Amino acid sequence: TIGRTKVDEELYQEMEDILIGADVGVTTTLKIIEQVREKRPQEPTQLKDFIVEEISLILKHEEGKLNMSEESPTVIMVVGVNGTGKTTTIAKLAARFKAEGKSVLLAAADTFRAAAIEQLEIWANRVNVSLIKHQPGADPGAVTYDAIQSIKARNTDVLIVDTAGRLHTKSNLMNELAKVRRVCQAQLPGAPHEVLLILDATCGQNGLLQAKQFTETVGVTGLALTKLDGTAKGGIVIAISDQLSLPVKLIGCGETLEDLIDFSGADFSRALFE
Amino acid sequence: SLSEKLSAVFKNLRRKGKLSAKDIALTLREIRLALLEADVNFKVVKEFIRRIKERAEGKEVLESLTPAQQVVKIVHEELIGIMGESSNQLERAAQGPTVIMLVGLQGSGKTTTVAKLAKHLSGNGQNPLMVAADTYRPAAIHQLNVLGENLKLPVFDMGAEADPVDIVNASVSRAKSANYDTIILDTAGRLTCDTEMMAELSRMKEKTSPAEILLVLDAMTGQDAVNTAEAFHRELNISGVILTKLDGDARGGAALSIRMVTGCPIKFVGVGEKIEALEPFYPDRMAGRILG
Ligand SMILES: Nc1nc2c(ncn2[C@@H]2O[C@H](COP(=O)(O)OP(=O)(O)OP(=O)(O)O)[C@@H](O)[C@H]2O)c(=O)[nH]1
Ligand SMILES: Nc1nc2c(ncn2[C@@H]2O[C@H](COP(=O)(O)OP(=O)(O)OP(=O)(O)O)[C@@H](O)[C@H]2O)c(=O)[nH]1
Ligand SMILES: [Mg+2]
Ligand SMILES: [Mg+2]
């Protein structure tokens, strides 16, 4: 809004472009702009503030903390399409829990992708937490089953289950994920306490379809948005919050263990205009 | 689909003859919405709509008995025109081993695609050497080695402590002495705003003079596809693009954005996690997918 002196159609168009350019999507953008028009902003800076307010409101309902179990071990399942940052986010979470003085077990339930187990193992060693793994090609449900027996036996505070990336359009792979969840449910009451969907900030409108399908199949309870340290704005979470009411809990902002921050709707909305 | 939406717009036109400016505006709006929903960058959409508008105001639509179909046909033609040729031809070096360098953002599918390309080239009678030049990501070298073992095709690595520029440099010597005719470089994923990492790619390019520098881009990339493609192109003068994960339901509008903005050819598409899942790029199929 630098150099703008009045609120006119051109300015509204410019704001629309910023939101669409941030992957908010047309439907949600038009809805936000419509609500801002009704507030009758008198100046360019006020218009921008109103937009930030509207977005913060949409996201405020959806800010959330990770669901932690009170007395028993907490089980967190990490899911999402290929390459979004699941394994790396798990490493960051493990480091965070460890720093909080909690005991952590990781389950290498991606038994499919080349070197997936080794990748998680390197992270487990760096963070100095335990890892349960089987051989490549093993049944992810079996790895998960063993992990849950272990946390029950040792009263471990947190179990984080790493799963293979999979496109939400592949029903056999989605069924496999549902089975991993059923193993959690059957082996520990209340588990999985958190099913975290990892979304890449660079993704466009497909993120909505991912969120819908993963929620339908495995009951997603929270989102983590990764790679926000890049040039992409990740505005798709606004559309997801608006249409599916899924809480955004975490932000991944880099490739090291420290690069994990709690999601703040207000900070996120402001950042759209930077 | 766009055809259905445009038919609905034109269904309300009872008269023949000149379409009003309002009719054309409604038509263009539907096309704009369809392209934005398909993740085409909004600036690219503006330019594309400008081209369609010119043709929509012309005789071919105004004198057509089925103006909706005619507009869809125009949109389809313009899209295919921008998408370019169907080609999966890779350049060969004039002499010595051909170097193919794969670059891109984190997680786009580079390592998997290196293996897919090796299989493809080996099937065409070439003798490729894969090079593990990602020393950053945990187990990245191991990942390429496992893929190489599965394919029974060779992988060159110098461990995770070596410098990626030294690795690619050494791989050229290795290829020459062992008679590999093609070298495929796997590089670490990186952000375009990471100047040091982008400069590392330039140093690799300088050392190996690749015949092909291919940007590996995730088909579900949204508006940011333009920033990414422009930045890699500015730094490296990329020779082509490989669009991955097209086996999903992402509309793939990033393809139109990259073509409009860089003019680089899309050479291959990744259509699955298996090593066979690499196909040539078909412009007409991509156009149909983007239009929905
Ligand atoms: N810049 C940046 N890179 C990230 C972030 N999170 C993950 N990455 C990188 O993204 C790439 C993929 O990360 P992984 O953790 O392997 O992703 P994944 O979802 O487990 O991948 P699959 O298991 O193959 O589906 C790696 O290069 C990570 O270092 C982030 O917040 N910022
Ligand atoms: N469904 C599908 N998955 C793919 C395709 N190409 C790659 N993948 C998957 O995407 C994920 C990331 O692939 P990688 O090859 O590790 O990606 P990368 O670009 O090397 O990642 P970094 O090295 O961390 O930047 C893996 O789970 C792959 O199996 C594809 O065409 N379709
Ligand atoms: Mg993983
Ligand atoms: Mg890689």
Provide tags for this entry.
heterodimer; A: 274 residues; alpha/beta; eight-stranded mixed sheet; elongated; B: 292 residues; 12 helices; binds guanosine-5'-triphosphate; binds magnesium ion
Question: If you had to describe this structure to a student in words, what would you say it looks like?
Answer:
With 274 residues, chain A is α/β, with parallel strands linked by helices. Chain A contains 10 helices and 8 strands. Chain A has helices at residues 9-21, 26-38, 44-60, 86-99, 116-127, 140-154, 171-187, 206-218, 236-244, 265-271, and strands spanning 74-79, 104-109, 130-132, 158-163, 194-200, 222-226, 248-252, 260-262. An 8-stranded mixed sheet of chain A has the order 3-2-4-1-5-6-7-8, sandwiched between helices. The radius of gyration of chain A is 20 Å and the shape is elongated. Chain B has 292 residues and is an alpha/beta fold. Helices cover 51% and strands 13% of the residues of chain B. Chain B is built from 12 helices and 8 strands. Chain B has an 8-stranded mixed sheet with strand order 3-2-4-1-5-6-7-8, with helices on both faces. In chain B, helix 10 links the parallel strand 5 and strand 6 (240-244). The model of chain B has no long low-confidence stretch (mean pLDDT 93). Chain A binds chain B through residues 17, 20-23, 25-26, 81-85, 112-115, 118-119, 121-123, 167-170, 200, 202-207, 209, 227, 229-233, 236, 255, and chain B through 33, 36-39, 41-43, 105-109, 136-140, 142-143, 146-147, 150, 191-193, 218, 220-224, 227-228, 231, 245, 247-251, 253-254, 273. One guanosine-5'-triphosphate sits between chains A (80, 82-88, 110, 113, 116, 164-165, 198, 226-227, 229-230, 252-255, 259) and B (106-107, 137, 189, 191).
Helix and strand topology:
The complex is a heterodimer of chains A (274) and B (292).
Chain A: H1 9-21, H2 26-38, H3 44-60, E1 74-79, H4 86-99, E2 104-109, H5 116-127, E3 130-132, H6 140-154, E4 158-163, H7 171-187, E5 194-200, H8 206-218, E6 222-226, H9 236-244, E7 248-252, E8 260-262, H10 265-271
Parallel strand pairs in A: 1-4, 1-5, 2-3, 2-4, 5-6, 6-7
Antiparallel strand pairs in A: 7-8
Helix pairs in contact in A: 1-2, 2-3, 3-10, 4-5, 6-7, 8-9
Chain B: H1 2-11, H2 21-37, H3 42-56, H4 59-62, H5 67-83, E1 98-103, H6 110-123, E2 128-132, H7 140-151, E3 155-156, H8 164-178, E4 182-186, H9 195-208, E5 212-218, H10 225-236, E6 240-244, H11 254-262, E7 266-270, E8 278-280, H12 283-291
Parallel strand pairs in B: 1-4, 1-5, 2-3, 2-4, 5-6, 6-7
Antiparallel strand pairs in B: 7-8
Helix pairs in contact in B: 1-2, 1-5, 2-3, 3-5, 5-12, 6-7, 8-9, 10-11
The structure holds guanosine-5'-triphosphate (2 copies) and magnesium ion (2 copies).
One magnesium ion binds next to α6 of chain B.
